[in-house]
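Hi D.,

Good news: the full-assembly prediction came through. Inputs first.
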Amino acid sequence: MTHVEANAAAAGEEGIGRNLVLPVLYPLLALLILVFVAYPMFVLFGRAVVEGSGPPFTLVWKVAADPYNRKVFWNTLLLGAIVAVLGTLLATAYAYAMTRVSIPGKKVWHFFAMLPTISPPILMALGLILLYGRRGIVTYGLFGIQTTGLYGLYGLVIAQLMSYFPFAYLLMLNLFRGLDASMEEAAGTLGANAWQALRTVSLPLLLPGLAGSVLLLFGYSFADLGNPMLLGGDFPVLSAQIYQTIIGMYDVPQGAALAIFLLAPSVLMFVAHKRLSSRMSYATVGAKGSSRLRLVMYLPARIAALVLVGIVTLAICLQYATILAGAFTQLFGINYTPTLRHVIATFTKSRGAILDTFALGVISAIVSVGLGLVIAHLVARTRHFGRGLVDFVANTPLAIPGTVIGLAFALAFSGSPLLLTGTAAIIIVAFVVRALPYGIRSGVAALDQIHRSLDEASMTMGATSGQTLWRVLLPLVRPALLAGMVFAFTRSVTTLSAVIFVVSPHWSLVTPTILSQMDRGDVGEAAALSVVVVLMVLAVIHGVPRLFDRDWREVHQE
Amino acid sequence: MAGLKIDRVTRQFSDFKALKEVSLDVADGEFLAVLGPSGCGKTTLLRLIAGFDKVTGGAIWLDDRLLSDTRSHVATEDRGVGIVFQSYALWPHMTVAENVAYGLEVAGLGRAQRDKRVNEALELVGLTQYGGRMPAMLSGGQRQRVALARCLVMEPGLVLLDEPLANLDVHLRASMEEEFRRFHERTGTTMVYITHDQAEAMALADRIAVLDRGVLEQVASASTLYREPATEMVAGFVGQGIVVPAEMRGAGHGGTCAASVFGAPATLRCRPGMPARAGAKACLRSVDLAFAAPGEAGMSGTVRRLIYQGGFFRAEFHPDASPGTAFVLEVPEPAPIEAGARASVAVRGGWIIPEGERR
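Then the structure:
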């Protein structure tokens, strides 16, 4: 018997000794997910359902019967519907212009359309207020109108459109790119012009994607907290109402009950979206096209496309330019004297918030992607008992609006058995739980591309599953993991709703700080801090791949 | 070195039995091929031996060591079984040398010893200069050799080869076949070679196990499989035999018996002492058939098609007694007959398929 064999045989006799990593890790992981995902939701339900002396659900019914609450509920739905439909139309048109029409400057248009996806949504409200508010530079400065027209439904629609249409645009962009050119070409050979081909061939194929985009935007609009709080005015919506109930009125049970009414439609949307995407596969089956599409050269179409992307880009640019200007003027709207005061304040007063946000964002990005990979590995590569359930529970945060998660966390971990309020842990956990579904997704996608035999080969060489994961799988999936981490970081740093209930004086974050600065009227500081966040995220997005993503494919070809 | 014993192994996937009581003994140092059409269960068998999957019945032994039965299961990493995968399964982020060294490293071998053995393994497959290359920079054949070296550096008692030539082109296949054979001669490792290609199996293996729909049909040398197929499936699968009903006229004496096939009298080979029985089946190949000489008895029928094969024709002959049966005769150029012509075909050889010999 050779040396190696003897080793293997000896280890085999020791029994499970060598292969402890996953069997130990797995129950631990399942426990973590139950404690940090399922348990808080149970607590939230408990607070809403069982309260006081009455029978269960008393409070929920009372809340549902209240006419004001009903109005808030319908407001939320109405806003969601408008944003979903308009946003989808805008996103489709934008994506069409970008993929099918011959227009110059596509990189620029794409960059600016993507900018809102990496900014806290609250920035849109901030920019709008500076531009079109009571002392807005356009409304008051240019036209001398002192109006509150911005506050309410219209302002909310515009702010949310700008914040969220880019997500729908990305979705549509991928769909348009995936569509097989030969299908439209076939229509062309049968005598259809470009418009007819689009209408009769591509649009039906895109229909599931359009529906997906509607549901996606609906969900984003529901979950948004920052914009409604700053721009809501006389148009209250649920997320802001929950916040007011908890923070303003200290009425936790009522807030919890309201949260259930925010949760229910979100879950419905999510389920519908899941159903839809499982049926959407036919669109992607037909999408395995390789031939390139001819771009539309028809001049009026090109001009129309250019005008569209130009106007949208201008609107977005105006936002960011105004915020930038706001950061460097005394009091935007009243006193336009240039100053560095706010920038200095940002790096002194708000330095803690910036550093905390960065540190916690980085930690949670690493944790969520790491956990995501392990869960993806469990689901895709092992047959551990209950792995489907773990996967399901870990993915539920996708369906839950940030406000609801944040509230559930604040309620669940504010006392025994697990007191986390006021610690960094609760913020990290909130970030991780929210980013975990994306971590799992990136893990599954990465593992799917690696043939099973690569880890089986490692096992036949005597490596345990832990060694296999570490030595073989991890290096291969690293590029995908880094991308996942950047995404998780961006999402964590820009969220407001999920963290507003869990921040504390010890651990403050950037987005709630911007909100309170706005509340105080410190527009300049809010603007300066906003600029810093956007720059920080941009630096991470562009810096991380350059620093760490030295792909094995490139490394060894030097 | 080790002998493999597979004892009545069954593998059931919910309601589908992928393997049914398969028993197989592979001697120490033997080169055994497992041959069968796709879906026959050969990959399942390999995965059970490797320990990727658990048996639902029976047991697998390597020498005196129980690897798998319904109660116990030695993990893959503790089996000491090497595999060469169809897809090579080389890790693309490691150099050739790193790929080969991996198992030794995991086993905790020191650097010096590791390097020595890696070099030996690379030398064995003729890739000494390629240690620093990435797998992506190698040709298909070279990758296959690396996979082989990586597996052999561990000096496993048993090597499983999962259709290792399926991804190579025809020319490369021939030279890799040669490589495998040389390799087996040099190391004397027990090898189990999974394939659906009978030419490969015949060229390489000491013995061939034919698997069909989860059942082991026959285990024998290549020539025995060809000359004396134990079942209809083997008769049809190996060497494209045609299985037809044969009327036995008497018991087998000295390995032959008198019979008739579709009315044509024939002397067929059979198991010595086989009693005459009704409903016997015979395996006929094109070498056993010829157009009847003048005055020779044969079966009458029609030549439906002639297909030119270069130097000879394949003539498709349908006997009147069973028009659905298509015999194939090889007819040298120039063809003495045309498509559509009537003809008489004599049976000059063949094999009576024994009954109940499936093991």
